[in-house]
Specification:
By secondary structure, the chain is of the alpha+beta class. It folds into 2 domains: 82 residues, 2-Layer Sandwich (Pseudouridine synthase); 133 residues, Pseudouridine synthase. Helix content is 26%, strand content 32%. It has 6 helices and 12 strands. Strands 1, 2, 3, 4, 5, 8, 9, 10, 11 and 12 form a 10-stranded mixed β-sheet that branches. The chain has a two-stranded antiparallel ribbon with strand order 6-7. Helix 1 packs parallel to helix 6. The two termini are 15 Å apart.
């Protein structure tokens, strides 16, 4: 590899489960010894997949990269909800889902394609008056969150083994897939939450071209030794 991290590189990392996006940035910054390191779009700790890391002068491209469309695969669990819309918080509001047919599931997915307003989760990194919403949510506080304009371009149901529904979707920047899970459950009438999520594409960048974190760190350390 002929990386020049100071001049600027765009690195594709396959984010492991339970790591925050900032954890990855910090790990890479400490390894490559370059001050300017950032990511082009947060992935939640419970999500895996494509995290775009920019170094050096390439950090100036972060805004443009963040604006690109995203592709995800994952699963919803129907028949229950959670306050965070994912596995971070306990299940509640259990409902019978045995009457839900595959055709109903497919119809709901199709109905959600297009431009729309979406209300982000309270358990999110959005800042209100300098405070992250998830910090307020964990204290039991709730705020009225403004809806955002997003667009779902494609929403494919890939498997229906109720209560677990597998999907693939492409969407615009700023889309919370957890909120899609919540809205999906509301439309279906039995509740739902996001039970797994993996980002597979950002624009034309593909998870197939991403480094496993440990492999990248090992390669970057070898480069440093060669340069020294």
């Amino acid at each position: 590899m002929n990386w020049d991290f100071e001049a600027g590189e765009v690195i594709l990392i396959d984010k492991p489960l339970e790591w925050t996006s900032f954890d990855i940035v910090k790990k890479i910054r400490n390894c490559i010894k370059v001050k300017k390191v950032g990511h082009a779009g947060t992935l939640d700790p419970l999500a895996t997949g494509l995290l775009v890391i920019c170094t050096g002068k390439k950090t100036k491209t972060i805004d443009a990269l963040q604006g690109q469309n995203k592709e995800y695969i994952g699963t919803f669990r129907i028949g229950a909800t959670t306050p965070s819309y994912d596995l971070e918080t306990p299940e509640e509001n259990f409902q019978d889902y045995n009457h839900i047919s595959r055709n109903q599931i497919l119809d709901v997915a199709q109905s959600m394609i297009g431009a729309q307003e979406q209300i982000p989760p309270m358990y999110s990194a959005i800042q209100v008056d300098g405070v992250r919403l998830y910090k307020l949510a964990r204290k039991g506080e709730e705020l009225q969150i403004k809806a955002r304009n997003i667009e779902i371009f494609d929403f494919e149901i890939t498997d229906t083994q109720s209560p677990v529904i597998s999907f693939r979707l492409t969407c615009s920047k700023g889309t919370y897939v957890r909120s899609i899970a919540r809205d999906f459950g509301i439309k279906l009438g039995v509740g739902a939450y996001l039970s797994s999520l993996r980002r597979t594409k950002v624009g034309t960048m593909d998870i197939a071209d991403a480094w496993l974190l440990d492999d990248f760190i090992a390669q970057a350390k070898n480069l440093r030794k060669e340069l020294n």
